[in-house]
Structure formats: structure tokens, C-alpha cells
Amino acid sequence: MTLVKFNNGVRNNVNPFFNDVFDSIVNDSFLSDKLVSRVPAVNISENDSEFNIELAVPGVKKEDLKINLDKNVLSVSAEKKSDEGQEVKKYSKREYSYNSFVRSFTLPDSADYAKIDADYTDGILKLTIAKREEAKFQSREIAVK
Matching CDD domains, A to Z (predicted)? Predict the structure, then answer.
């Protein structure tokens, strides 16, 4: 089976040789595999009481994930164990494989390092880091004298 490339019927006839060479370079599996990110995408958000980190790690088992805290650096890593008895597939394109990765995040001083929770659901790893009480925004009304 080969990968079918579509150009919606549009063909630039200025220099067909240039197009063929350019297409072969851009669509080369060696080059395109190197351009594909080998670390999971991440979303980082914050509210009044906590920081939230979400990593997209499809195809990774919960048992393969490791989360470590060293001083103020939170590291998420995974090493996918390969099964010896599995049949080796020949891929024409492979973009979502994470054999191993490491993502590290420097936590701010306002983070409560003792209150870090992790949840893995549907290929998304969600980390919740609580803020220290003194770092939480406190609102109050100030009387005018």
C-alpha cells in the first residue's frame, strides 16, 4: 500500500521537473519524520488556586508514564516498552509514535510542591499543581476614610 498524495487537480506547469524534485524532497519519509515533533503537545493554564498542565500522549500506557519532581523542576517522561512477539509493520507514514520522551517544567515559587495530582484519561495526561495559600489571590473591600 502506498500513500496517495492529492493536489486537488492543481498542477503548476511552470517547471514540472522542479515540482517533481521539490515534491520528492518534501514528501520524503526520512525528512518528514525528522520534522514531526517527537515530544507531546502541551497546554498550560492557571486559575486562582492551581496550575494545570495537559500533555497529549496518545498510545502511551499509564504504566509507562513517570512523573518526577526535583527541586522546582517537574519532569514527565515515558518509555514505551516494545513487545518482542509483536509483528513488525512497515509504515508508509508514522506521526504519532512516542517511543520515549521527556518534558520538563520549571514550577514557580507560588506552587505547592506537596499538592501535585496526575490523571490520565483518553490519551491526555492532566497534572494539577496547587498554589500555596499565600500565593492565592485574595479579594477584599477596602474602606475609604
Answer: ACD_sHsps-like (cd06464)
